[in-house]
From TrEMBL:
Compositional bias of kind Low complexity: 1-16
Membership in a protein family: Belongs to the aldehyde dehydrogenase family.
Keywords for this protein: Oxidoreductase
Domain of life: Bacteria
Region span, Disordered: 1-30
Domain Aldehyde dehydrogenase: 26-482
Protein name, per record: Aldehyde dehydrogenase
Keyword Oxidoreductase: yes
Active site per the UniProt annotation: 260
Amino acid sequence: MSADQTTATTTATTTARPSGAEPSSSPRRLLEKLSPVSGARLGEFPVAGEDEVRAAVARARAAFPGWRDTPLAVRAEALGRVKQVLAEQGEHYARKISEDTGKPTFEATMTEIGAVPVLLDYILRRAPVLLRRRKVSTPIILPGKSGFIEYFPRGVIGIISPWNFPFQLAVVPVLSALIGGNTVVLKQSEITPIVAGVVEDLFRRIGLPAGVVEIVHGDGSTGAALTRADVDMLFFTGSVATGRKVMAAAAQRPIPVELELGGKDAMIVCADANLERAAEAAVWGGLVNCGQACVSVERIFVVDAIHDHFVEKVREKVSQVTVGGPDEQADMGPLTSSAQLGIVERHVKSAVAAGAKVVFGGERLQRPGQFFAPTLLTGITPEMEIFREETFGPVLPVVRVRDEEEAVRLANASEFGLAGSVWTQDVAKGLRLASRLECGQVCINDVIQSVGHPALPFGGVRSSGIGRYHGDEGILAFMNTRGIMVDRGKLNSEPLWYPYAGKVAHGFELLRGITTRSVGSLVKGFLGLRKKMTRQK
Ligand code: NAD
């Protein structure tokens, strides 16, 4: 962390307290935030310690029964106010997001702020249907019973979020948890402390009861404190390395954990694809948010027959991408994290050393800030670091493949499995190929935008994570399930209950009925057992 554009100092201070925290006169560590665009100092932000985290969790726990018992319609009404605040403050928030991350303000507006009302509308519409108690069918072997399923909140949810989409990836999990009656303690990334303040402002403005959303500010130490605190579930978005630590901490209790981790998404370009559209998509999908999206296009598999033609189209388009800070209205900004810039440089250098060709870009831009040129590489092979590890930067690595079979095999030859895309004008073939990709989401003839489809569950397989959010799964992820069986309670005993004497033969008859689905044997078996019950009265 200190290697990044936030650096730590220790000062005696009580400034910029997280909401509701007690004033403290003990020295607090402060993190200095530098602009990714210019390197200028943007401010200092406090790091909450273990005690502050525990106190926040205690407040969220105290608020839990009240929020849980608030009718769903009232909770929904309160959360719906987020849309009103975004309508009033969205522009201001988007500019703050750009200042903190360096991303273009159009991207901040559409992919960060704009995503929230769409996903929230789905949550508000589906939760009343999904969370209602529902009846399930009861098999004949349980005569006189009926079965119901209902959901109840897990309790206090610890949510830890990353810096790449710092607004959306904090706000949406919080809303998804709150709708079902959970309370939340949120710890956002130290690399984007300005956005952390924006998110705090949003939740303050919607006016939830005290303790329903607690926000603690800080770095990895604050996140680690939250994983050790008295929470009932951890929802983590971030790197695989930290995800492992979060899961290990959750295992100590044990509590459920959802992990939304990294990706190495494949784009498979078939010979019959609309190459113009595919080339546009490759450029946008690889460079949007300066490539710092978990679902960025990170490997482009192009079949041999069209490889050179396609690469030429991509080269033309990459060369037209403008780079600059938010004030320059450019297409692509700087990397938000300076540590990430180092990783991107390393991946490109090692790929070139191993035989890859730089078709465009390939190096840091000679200007202040954390800018790296939009980069197109060909000749990528599976042994290269850039094929195996998440680059998380503005790099398009192209892999030449014989055919679609080889593309699918290599796409799946990865530690990751978050999302992917297939490009063909034969949608039936696209669907067949999509079903063979080992990942959580696939687009056909599109890229990344499936994440914004509110009904589609999102999440990964393998090292890309555990669990799903968005869609119905994203609401249920924060709920416990309760099964209820009802018997009207008229009989004094049950065929299965004591005593067993004289019941064995009837049991065998019943077993025959269950295994052969013979209604005759079931009825005979049950009547036999019922008679025994009656005689023993
Ligand atoms: P990170 O793991 O460095 O940090 C994520 C969060 O964890 C931060 O808030 C950080 O302070 C906190 N943290 C650090 N150490 C911790 C610890 N020991 N215990 C608890 N919390 C701790 O990740 P990042 O660099 O912020 O995010 C980038 C990564 O996130 C990339 O790998 C990206 O692919 C992934 N990501 C995944 C998704 C998804 O939905 N699958 C979305 C966005 C980003």
